Amino acid sequence: MTLEILTPDKTVYTGEVTSVTVPGTSGSFEVLKGHAPIISTLEDGKVVIRSGKDSQSMFIKGGVIEVINDQVIVLAEGIGH
């Protein structure tokens, strides 16, 4: 599945991933291949990106996630440190 993480001023991440865990408003949740279509708001927190055995994470400052047809788009208000 493909993942894009965007902020208002740039594309932060684009690539094929195995899964992504995001800080949902009602708690963290993981998106895997074949996930049902969803749109959800996101809180400030850690996004964990997994691709095979590799894993990386980044902090976002709120936003929205959209999942449809194995395409995941995270629209973050900003990226933290």
What distance lies between the first and last C-alpha atoms, to the nearest angstrom?
26 Å
| Number of strand elements | 9
Radius of gyration: 11 Å
Q: Spell the H/E element sequence.
A: EEEEEEEEE
Q: Uncertain runs with pLDDT below 50, 5 residues or more?
A: none
Number of helices: 0
Summary tags:
81 residues; ATP Synthase, domain 1; five-stranded mixed sheet; four-stranded antiparallel sheet; globular; mainly beta
Write the layout of secondary structure elements.
Layout: E1 2-6, E2 11-16, E3 19-24, E4 27-32, E5 38-42, E6 45-51, E7 54-60, E8 63-68, E9 71-76
Parallel strand pairs: 1-9
Antiparallel strand pairs: 1-2, 3-4, 3-6, 5-8, 6-7, 8-9
Question: How would you portray this structure in words?
Answer:
The protein has no helices and nine strands. With 81 residues, it is mostly beta strands. It has a single domain (2-76), classed as F0F1 ATP synthase delta/epsilon subunit, N-terminal (ATP Synthase, domain 1, Sandwich), CATH 2.60.15.10. It is globular and about 25 Å long.
Task: Describe the structure concisely for a colleague.
The protein is mainly β and about 80 residues long.
